[in-house]
Structure formats: structure tokens, C-alpha cells
Amino acid sequence: MTxxxxxxxxxxxxxxxxxxxxxxxxxxxxxxxxxPDGTSQLxxxxxxxxxxxxxxxxxxxxxxxxxxxxxxxxVMLADHIIEQAGEELRFTWSGLGSETAAPPNFRLMTxxxxxxxxxxxxxxxxxxxxxxxxxxxxxHVRLLIPPRDVEPEWPRLAETGRVIWPQGAAKPAIRKYTIxxxxxxxxxxxxxxxxxxDDAGPGSDFATAARRGDILGMTGPxxxxxxxxxxxLLAGDETALPAIARILESLPADARGLAFVEVQDENxxxxxxxxxxxxxxxxxxxxxxxGTTDLLLDAVRGVDWPDKxxxxxxxxxxxxxxxxxxYLRKDRxxxxxxxxxxxxxxRGENEDSFSVTKHRH
Length: 361
Ligand SMILES: Cc1cc2nc3c(=O)[nH]c(=O)nc-3n(C[C@H](O)[C@H](O)[C@H](O)COP(=O)(O)OP(=O)(O)OC[C@H]3O[C@@H](n4cnc5c(N)ncnc54)[C@H](O)[C@@H]3O)c2cc1C
What we know:
The protein is α+β, with helices and mostly antiparallel strands. It is built from six helices and 19 strands. Helix 1 packs across helix 2.
């Protein structure tokens, strides 16, 4: 079903050149069919695009199953059109006339409740409208954390379909967090924040100071879900504890495996509902600083692995992530479809300088 459609007419002296450029660039993301009538059809996971040359213009028609998929498709086309023709090019999609609209995967959220869970973990219950889109297998969101003492600006949609991100003093900081719990009917999500006060950043600071009524932005979700195998290994530090807890709670009752969670000490351990066949082992780093131990690596190395029907999921500090991922691939020979390892943070670098998206598989 393709209920959501939009189209644009991009004025260009050479529609054929833009048409060929788009086909070449976009074919790597989907399936391309060039038709005898001169049109091209591109099919992607998020929808389809039809390209048609006209006198002095290229017509682009998009169709998708949902509003957010259509938004992703439009951004993809707009990015490539502008890459080919330059930033000055102006074009408008049907149904998208003003620059005040928010991207459809953006929500303004308000803090409803602050719950200290452990000395270094605070839960913020956030409320927002129409959260159904966020109730998916995708585990994480990007939180847009307002600057202190400055009225924040939020992302808007340009006429071209691209997102205009705020700049300067009003720009929110963007940090990735896990949706620990979502209740669409109540319009609520829980996010569990690690509070790392000695080396704070906007995410940790926001959670520390949060009061009922504070606002922040949320976009997403992303990152994919967890596909359980017969035997499962989960490993992470406290930043991945919300994801590990959510995964454990979602596993089938007959799931088997192990979960290792590194925290400072027993005061940081949290109750998790776990299938009987999944054992949770807490690893205490004691006085050592977060992100400086080999506890997770050693624990993963000590595992007695089955030869097949196995899956490993890892989320932790960058150095541990690198070593564990290398161990899983090289020493254990896990295939691409048998593991997902993600660096959740990097010691001594904030999220702006450390692009974690480059450090996953
Ligand atoms: C997919 C994904 C999901 C995530 N989910 C969660 C989640 O649910 N809860 C959560 O708390 N975190 C989560 N994280 C990790 C979180 O995004 C990072 O810890 C992030 O750096 C926190 O932002 P900040 O503004 O507090 O610190 P930044 O401004 O990014 O960093 C400032 C300083 O703090 C250090 N630092 C960052 N995190 C820590 C830490 N945990 N302990 C000690 N020092 C630190 C940095 O090295 C830097 O020196 C997730 C990360 C990813 C990639």
C-alpha cells in the first residue's frame, strides 16, 4: 500500500543529466528499472520514486506506506538533487510549502517525573504526543537537549524536504539514548540516564538537573532491534543497561544465554525481568574509572559458546568495544548476522566529536 505521496518539479536546463545522476546514486540503495518511455522507477525499503524528464525540468514522484518513510525518502532525493545541482537550487514538494513544519519523526517531550534508580542512574519519564511511531523494535532515539539559559530552536523542514538543523547558541546538543519503556496510550517514554558527574556533558547534566516541566526534543527511533537466537550473549556497561534490560524483557520465555553488565558496584545493579534460561552476571569495577577495565572482554572470553544458533550483542565504551568485536569476529569466527557490537561512548571524547555511528556492526 502506498497511501502517502508527494511530487516536485525541479527546474534544470539538463533534466537528462540530473535523471542519470539520481539513477546512478540511488540504484545502490534499491532496485532501478529504466522504462522504454524514458521514465525510471526506483524501489526502496521506505517507498518508491518515479523520475520523468520534462521540458526544462525533472519531475519526481514519491510514494510510501507512511508519513515518516515518505519524509526519509524525500530527504534522500533532496540531498542528491542538491548534490547534483548545488545549494542554490529551489524546489518545493506538494504538500510542503512552509519552513515552519517539524520533521515527522520529531517530538517535543516534557519531563513528567524524575526517578533516581541508583547513585549513577536517573530515570526521566517524558511525555509527548502521538508516540506510536516510536513504539518499534528500534531501540534508541536521539535526544535534543536544550542549551542552558538560551531559548532552544528545533529542527524544521525546508521547502526542498531537507531538515534545517538549528545553529549557534540556540542549537540543542544531540545525544543517543535508549527507550527503556514506551506506553503509547499514556504518551510516555522512560529514558534511563547514566549520570557521570566528574566528566559531565549535556546529557548527564540535563538528567542531573531535570525538573518536572523541563522540555527536550526527541527524534528517531533507530538502531534496529534484537533478533534472538537459540543462545544469546549480551554484554555492556551501564550505558547499555537500559538496552540490555529492554532486550531481556522482550525475549521469548525459552530464550537461553548470558548477560554481562559492568557497573561500579552492587548499588548500581537494577532489577531486570529475565527469562529463566538467561543468566545475568554483574561485573563490578569498584574504584576503577568507567571505560578503563577489561572486565567485559575477560567475561566474554570466558564464555562456553555453542557452534551455531547463537547471537552476541555488545554496547560499551569504545576501547572495550574494539577488543570485544575483534575477539567475536577473529577468535570466535562469528559471522555478520551473528553479532552486533556498538561503541556507546568514548572516554575523553564527547558525542559531538566521536561519531559512534562509524563504530558499529
Ligand atoms: C545507541 C546508543 C544508545 C545509548 N543509550 C544510552 C542510555 O540509554 N543511557 C545512557 O546513559 N547512555 C546511553 N548511551 C550513551 C550516551 O549516548 C553517551 O554516554 C553520551 O556520551 C552521553 O552524553 P553526555 O552529554 O552525558 O556526555 P558527552 O558530552 O558525550 O561527553 C562528555 C564527557 O563525558 C564522558 N562520558 C560520556 N559518557 C560517559 C559515561 N557513561 N561514563 C563516564 N564518562 C562518560 C565522555 O568521554 C566525555 O569525556 C547510548 C549510546 C548509543 C550509541
